[in-house]
């Protein structure tokens, strides 16, 4: 049986603003319209409106056609079929992704192979699951045969033919479903009948023959409907089949399917209704789509009727629909496939949860009413078709009305149209230059307007929307620039809403005989009217023409005393004109002068921003004019460019004034800008070239406390054009600086670059002084030097630290050494590049009494061209290192300790004065390694030998401490730290424990250095014990014989017992032995 009529449904798309009308599409079920896109600034919403004079009131129901109350109820014959267990099992089967992924992997080569796969996969599964397997396989693998359908030349629709071609029409789908059910021994029948699908709207009267086929199946003694054709996909507007699963048609409810599927008379039992309906009733019922039932919609009037009539003595029809609170509707009226302009609107009665849908035809004829819906408040969610009705107008009423296009925002925000009423079209004739729409709105609502022509182009100067405080009404003026058709859109939102405006209402404007020149409005924002601003000049236009020779133009605005303004000039390319505006308050005239100086001939946008003086927030847009500049004199007039912060922080430029562009030459290669500002504001500078690249050493800025003036000097580094920025922030603000003012610097006559000292404010605040080197901040490292040394003099309460980074802003480990030379009363800052290239050396400072961070005071820029490998690097040192006059002898000229794979320890040698004692430790991941470090004195080399024995590979820290034995402070202090990278460890040792007297007498262990001895082993002990008279050892907890110490050497060979071994010595007249060293026995 060929499929004569199949459903037509549109794919789901998200509605977005500015999109054009959706394209119509023919797909297997009937068309599922989605909401058309909107022209507003924001996402569209449903069309909803409050009643006007000619809008029905609550008595509308009394005037509805009486037939609405008489239609038969649709009741399923088997009320137990859709019980909770069935519903749950059905939904679980549909939702189970493992079923879908498994079925999608099937690759049957024949029908019998497919049956075998189905049988195997169905083992242990429920009957509902088995039916889903069949439904999903068919929907995923059988394409709708569009060629057969449109040519009426139907191919083989047997299961074998459909499987072979993987194509079919409705009969092929139904036959395939039954065939597979039969082989799984599940009862199934093919139903022949009629459907309201593609082409249904075009037919007149009842169909002469059946035109569709589907299935009924028996599950647990209940019968259910299955529509695999409509579940497989749809035809698009190119009459191409698009495969898309629609699970709604899997085991569908009979009381819903009856609206679009009617079995033939001989099979009316398969309606599965308590009382079957007739063909006449079927044809008179509305087209209710799956979404209608999914949204729990209820058509109140007309009740179960597809046809709607105009209300008596009214020019429109009404459709009443009840929905849950979270359901939103959209509707439109069509005739001959085109929407009727102004022919529809919706009012939502929140109290009754009732949608009143009004439809006003413009001509006689058959109209189509389309109702769309969605659930939830997500603005990005699409509306989809839920229901179609028919409005057949035989005679037009005497008085016709039309509705402006209304969105849900209109009703939600309580808006009301005062003028014009009962129309969507405003006509401008006989020289009338603009249309006015009056809107009432609550105090917490604000509006915005937009005028577009018939091509969708926005007329930037065509709308003016403002609130008249005297009349307490919103005046929305729209001025077309020529004859033609325009759309006047009004958007709205609550004042406390920080988001976008939402479409509220729109009218059409038919403009004829528009006067020339046409009226235009400068663009104004709500702020302009909220702040009580008044435009003094120019009036009646948005365009200012500058005549030949004029240097700048002026806009005059009067404001309340608590309002301040700022401006910006932008050229036709959207580029802000640097130094192109100056906005200031004329106290004598009591108004603001907003001056704009174009830098060339052309069209410019002059923007004026405003805010209350008490408002801590940003300036906001208030009004905008266009400027047409002709024959601008050269060089053009310019203003220093100022930003919002300039006014917010009450800054004042002292010099240069009235010049935004400054020329520098070889005779005067720098630009000095002097400013005043409040005490709580800090300034910084920045110099950029014409490629927006920041120029290193391109500026200095500091505060001169004696004259209470900020001095900013800009130094271009080559010939060209530059921009010098002055940035500001509150001193209490921990965030970034932001631009406050800027100058254009013309350095095209400059042949050589300057080299200023790169200083920061702290440099001047702390009264720092550079002793060496002389000159600027750029230093080229000589061939014979591996580091740069900077010497500074500071007050006694200032401390310094340093940092070295490369040209990629990567910190150079071991790249700096900063210390205070007490002997010469200066700070020495050394910086060692690790390779050839450019480096940035920073010197930071703070007060000794200040517990906070260091602040950048001075920077140098180092160019290194002859760095030898390995490069010099500095270990991390503390000031005490230099106070104690320590010297590192090994490792020399490097920041890291040396590790040899064949040695169990690393060595550091330090020379120290006689009154300094050293100690050390080794750490791994900030945890001290027990007995991992040994310090002793090497008399041959006259240095302290510090040994470090790691327990594992990896990164370690070698900490070195020192103390002065003559100081009252007996605590050792950190003096240096070496990183140690252990790559391979052949032998692990722990040093013996040494006691304080070992360091006091500057002793040394020659052997053994391993502090862990093996019981029974024979060990040679050799120590250097200065000033000792006698020495002995303990072994197995007993004292061995004592021996004289000859030339400070003590040597003995010992068989190790089971207990710890100690070495003791007698000093001077002390009769007791002093323990110096202890070994443990394993």
TrEMBL record:
Domain Transglutaminase-like: start-end pairs: 162-230
Record Pfam families: Ig-like_KY, Transglut_core
Region (Disordered), start-end ranges: 16-64
TM regions (residue ranges): none
InterPro entries per the UniProt record, alphabetical: CAP/Cytokinesis_protein, Ig-like_KY, Papain-like_cys_pep_sf, Transglutaminase-like
Gene Ontology CC: cytoplasm
Protein name, as recorded: Transglutaminase-like domain-containing protein
UniProt organism field: Adineta ricciae
């Amino acid at each position: 049986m060929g499929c004569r009529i199949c459903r037509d449904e549109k794919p789901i798309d998200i509605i977005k603003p500015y999109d054009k009308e959706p394209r119509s599409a023919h797909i297997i079920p009937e068309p599922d319209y989605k909401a058309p896109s909107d022209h507003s600034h924001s996402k569209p919403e449903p069309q909803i409106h409050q009643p006007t004079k000619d809008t029905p009131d609550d008595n509308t129901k009394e005037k509805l056609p009486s037939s609405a109350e008489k239609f038969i109820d649709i009741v399923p014959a088997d009320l137990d079929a859709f019980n909770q267990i069935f519903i749950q099992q059905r939904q679980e089967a549909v939702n189970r992704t493992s079923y879908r992924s498994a079925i999608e992997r099937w690759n049957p080569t024949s029908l019998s192979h497919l049956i075998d796969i189905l049988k195997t996969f169905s083992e242990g599964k429920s009957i509902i699951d088995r039916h889903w397997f069949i439904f999903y396989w068919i929907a995923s693998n059988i394409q709708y045969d569009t060629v057969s359908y449109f040519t009426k030349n139907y191919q083989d629709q047997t299961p074998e033919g459909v499987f072979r071609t993987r194509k079919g029409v409705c009969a092929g789908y139904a036959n395939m479903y039954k065939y597979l059910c039969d082989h799984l021994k599940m009862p199934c029948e093919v139903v022949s009948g009629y459907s309201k699908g593609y082409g249904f709207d075009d037919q007149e009267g009842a169909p002469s023959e059946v035109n569709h086929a589907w299935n009924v199946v028996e599950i647990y003694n209940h019968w259910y409907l299955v529509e695999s054709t409509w579940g497989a996909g749809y035809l698009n507007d190119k009459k191409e089949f698009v495969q898309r699963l629609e699970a709604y048609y899997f085991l569908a409810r009979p009381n819903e399917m009856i609206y679009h599927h009617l079995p033939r008379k001989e099979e009316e039992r398969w309606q599965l209704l308590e009382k079957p309906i007739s063909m006449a009733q079927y044809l008179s019922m509305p087209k209710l789509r799956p979404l209608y039932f999914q949204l729990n919609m209820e058509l109140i009037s007309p009740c179960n009727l597809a046809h709607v009539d105009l209300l008596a003595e009214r020019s429109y029809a009404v459709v009443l629909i009840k929905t849950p609170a979270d359901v939103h509707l959209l509707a439109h009226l069509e005739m001959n496939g085109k929407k009727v302009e102004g022919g529809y609107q919706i009012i939502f009665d929140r109290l009754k949860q009732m949608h009143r849908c009004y439809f006003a035809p413009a001509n006689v004829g058959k109209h189509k009413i389309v109702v769309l819906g969605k659930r939830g408040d997500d603005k990005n969610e699409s509306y989809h078709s839920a229901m179609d009705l028919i409005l057949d107008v035989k005679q037009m009423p005497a008085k016709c009305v039309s509705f402006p296009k209304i969105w849900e925002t209109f009703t939600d925000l309580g808006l009301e149209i005062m003028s014009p009423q009962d129309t969507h079209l405003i006509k401008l004739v006989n020289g009338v230059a603009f249309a006015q729409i009056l809107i009432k709105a609550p105090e917490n609502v604000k509006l915005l307007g937009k005028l577009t022509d018939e091509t969708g182009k926005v007329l930037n100067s065509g709308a003016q929307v403002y609130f008249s405080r005297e009349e307490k009404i919103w005046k929305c003026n729209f001025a077309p620039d020529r004859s033609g058709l325009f759309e006047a859109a009004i958007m709205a939102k609550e004042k406390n809403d920080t988001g976008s405006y939402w479409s509220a209402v729109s009218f059409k404007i038919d403009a004829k005989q528009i006067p020339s020149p046409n009226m235009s409005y400068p663009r104004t924002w709500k702020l302009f009217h909220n702040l009580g601003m008044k435009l003094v000049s120019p009036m009646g236009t948005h365009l200012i023409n500058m005549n030949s020779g004029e240097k700048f133009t002026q806009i005059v605005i009067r404001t309340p005393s608590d309002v301040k303004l700022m401006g910006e000039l932008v050229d036709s390319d959207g580029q802000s004109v640097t130094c192109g505006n100056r906005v200031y308050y004329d106290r004598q005239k009591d108004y603001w002068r907003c001056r704009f100086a174009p830098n060339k001939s052309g069209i410019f946008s002059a923007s004026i921003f405003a805010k209350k003086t008490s408002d801590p927030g940003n300036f906001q847009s208030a009004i905008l004019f266009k400027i047409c500049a002709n024959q601008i004199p050269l060089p053009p007039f310019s203003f220093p460019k100022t930003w919002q912060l300039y006014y917010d922080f009450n800054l004042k430029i002292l010099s240069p004034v009235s010049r935004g562009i400054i020329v520098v030459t070889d005779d005067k290669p720098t630009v000095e800008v002097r400013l005043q500002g409040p005490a709580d504001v800090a300034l910084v500078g920045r110099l950029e070239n014409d490629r927006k690249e920041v120029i290193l050493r391109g500026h200095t800025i500091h505060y001169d406390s004696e004259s209470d003036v900020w001095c900013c000097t800009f130094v271009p580094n080559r010939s060209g054009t530059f921009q010098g920025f002055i940035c500001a922030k509150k001193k209490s603000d921990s965030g970034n600086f932001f631009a406050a003012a800027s100058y254009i610097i013309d350095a095209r006559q400059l042949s050589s670059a300057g080299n200023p000292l790169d200083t920061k404010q702290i440099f001047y605040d702390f009264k720092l002084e550079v002793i060496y080197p002389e000159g600027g901040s750029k230093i080229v490292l000589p061939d014979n030097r591996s580091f740069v040394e900077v010497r500074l003099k500071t007050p006694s309460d200032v401390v310094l630290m340093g940092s070295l980074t490369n040209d990629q802003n990567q910190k150079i480990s071991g790249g700096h050494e900063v210390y205070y030379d007490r002997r010469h009363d200066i700070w020495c800052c050394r910086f060692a590049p690790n390779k050839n290239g450019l480096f940035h050396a920073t010197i930071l400072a703070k007060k000794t009494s200040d517990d906070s961070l260091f602040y950048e005071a001075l920077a140098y820029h180092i160019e290194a061209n002859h760095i030898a490998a390995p490069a010099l690097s500095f270990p991390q040192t503390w000031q005490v290192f230099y106070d104690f006059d320590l010297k590192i002898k090994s490792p020399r000229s490097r920041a890291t300790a040396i590790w040899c794979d064949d040695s169990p320890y690393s060595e550091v040698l330090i020379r120290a004065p006689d009154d300094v004692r050293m100690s050390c430790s080794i750490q791994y991941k900030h945890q001290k390694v027990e007995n991992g470090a040994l310090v002793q004195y090497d008399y041959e080399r006259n240095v302290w030998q510090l040994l470090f024995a790691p327990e594992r590979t990896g990164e370690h820290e070698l900490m070195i401490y020192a103390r002065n034995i003559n100081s009252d402070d007996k605590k050792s202090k950190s003096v240096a730290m070496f990183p140690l990278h252990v790559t391979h460890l052949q032998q692990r040792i722990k040093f013996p424990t040494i006691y304080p007297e070992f360091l006091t007498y500057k002793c040394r262990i020659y052997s053994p250095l391993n502090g862990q001895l093996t019981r029974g082993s024979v060990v040679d002990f050799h120590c250097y014990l200065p000033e000792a008279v006698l020495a002995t050892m303990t072994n197995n907890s007993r004292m061995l014989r004592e021996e004289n110490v000859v030339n400070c050497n003590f040597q003995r060979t010992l068989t190790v017992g089971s207990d710890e071994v100690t070495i003791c010595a007698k000093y001077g007249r002390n009769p007791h032995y002093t323990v110096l060293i202890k070994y443990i026995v394993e």
